[in-house]
Amino acid sequence: EGKLQGKGRQVTYVDAMDQRSAEQSRLAADLRIALDTEQLYLHYQPIVTMPGGELFGVEALVRWTHPARGPIGPAVFIPAAERTGLIVPLGAWILEEACRQAVRWIEELGDAAPHTVTVNVSARQLREAGFAGEVAAVLERTGLPPEVLTVEVTETAVFDGGTALTELRAIAALGVKIALDDFGTGHSSLGLLRTCPADVLKVDKSFVDDVTEGGQQAVVVAALIGICEGMGLRAVAEGVETAEQAAELQRLGYRYAQGFHYGRPMPAEAIAAYRPAPARSRIAA
Ligand code: C2E
Ligand code: MG
Ligand code: MG
Ligand code: MG
Fold it and tell me: Which domain of life, per UniProt (predicted)?
């Protein structure tokens, strides 16, 4: 009997695994179609300077409106795309679309255009030999000056494979900026700073949250700004949601921030109209 029960459990476990991978492959199959039928688009979230909240740059974030299931978040479909390898063509599309938009902003807005456009690049993309060559080709095709593009990677992506660091160095050599995302949450964030070319540290939201909540991690936020100043890196505080957080970050010396307090990810047209909050209240007054 015990044997039967055990067998039953095993079947249930296998079923659950099957269901999950079936869901993953369904998602990936739908995503493949989405890529060809304009269900995917990019939103852009402001990266601002403090204290004024002026637009400094943007981060491109991919969006998917599934014809039957409605909006599906990137936290759900990017992992599926990574597992199936679909992230390679998907990521190529995202990179080119973001670069084209960056050129459009420069043409339309001149000096008021975002100074930098940040694009997320996943581990799987970075592992593709020749990825840096693809970045160079996109810059060439779109005419975007390399220094306007920032490639955003996570620590795990850089450590993921042998060639990731090589590709990243080749990308940096083009003049493209490198941002390390979710900084401080990985296993050897500080070690990474020795080997990896980096221009920007994005201090993870979990640390930012602790700044006003008296959490233990608040000291990390204070320490990281010192490291960035010493190493000539730009520190960007991620996930800033309140005026209190913004004020405390400024007090600690932060000059760049990104978060719902300043603006949610929005369509490209809304970026052209983006104005810092203080300017809006001056107009209202
Ligand atoms: P990420 O690169 O760390 O991007 C920041 C995420 O935090 C975005 O979620 C953004 O909307 C969210 N966020 C920004 N400010 C706030 C805030 O104040 N509060 C809160 N609660 N959240 C905030 P999103 O767009 O859902 O993206 C999630 C993740 O999916 C990204 O994390 C990134 O790892 C991945 N992703 C998104 N777009 C792309 C893409 O185009 N390519 C790749 N490879 N990955 C992407
Ligand atoms: Mg990221
Ligand atoms: Mg990001
Ligand atoms: Mg992040």
Answer: Bacteria
